[in-house]
Design brief:
Layout: E1 6-10, H1 16-26, H2 28-31, H3 38-59, E2 64-70, E3 73-82, E4 86-94, H4 103-118, E5 121-126, H5 132-138, E6 142-146, E7 151-155, H6 160-166
Parallel strand pairs: 4-5
Antiparallel strand pairs: 1-2, 2-3, 3-4, 5-7, 6-7
Helix pairs in contact: 1-3
């Protein structure tokens, strides 16, 4: 699918139900392993999403909080905070049926290009078992920290000079 068929648009209050649903899909595997009934799982996921959303809004109020849309349909989210020296990929998530189609790769390519053009590094946090970690490895991210829940990964900016010399 050409990236031109995808659009980013700012999240709005009306998107909260979709964002909660999307968040739940990112925790589905984990939730299948707990001995809770569906009501308890739903309550837990709602609480977790609300806490995460509130934290992001309070601590990264200048971030770009975007929905990834295809023909007007929300299919994912992309959250990026642009600091003075670092692009922070806060989150990229897609509905299960939209995963493994190259969408994450395309947006990561765009962020890498932006980082290289502006001389900024990119930082992200990912669970060690998240399949997206292979994607980050391919893009040259290296583990720079481990808090036992998430790995911090970073990719230094590559200037055109360094790319030409080391290519």
């Amino acid at each position: 699918m050409p990236i031109s068929e995808l659009q980013l648009r700012p999240i709005a209050e009306a998107d909260q139900a979709f964002l909660r649903e999307l968040y739940a899909t990112t925790r589905a595997h984990e939730m299948h392993q707990v001995p809770w009934d569906q009501a308890a799982i739903d309550a837990f996921l709602t609480q977790q999403f609300d806490a995460q959303h509130r934290y992001y809004q309070e601590h990264y109020h200048d971030a770009q909080f975007s929905l990834i849309c295809h023909q007007g349909q929300s299919v994912g989210r992309l959250y990026v905070f642009r600091g003075p020296n670092t692009l922070n990929l806060m989150d990229i998530a897609l509905l299960p049926e939209w995963r493994r189609q190259g969408i994450g790769t395309r947006y990561l390519e765009a962020l890498v290009r932006e980082a290289d053009e502006t001389g900024k590094s990119i930082r992200l946090f990912v669970e060690a078992t998240n399949p997206a970690r292979r994607l980050y490895d391919r893009f040259g991210f290296v583990v720079t920290g481990d808090n036992r829940v998430y790995l911090q990964m970073q990719r230094a900016a590559r200037t055109s000079f360094a790319q030409d010399v080391f290519a």
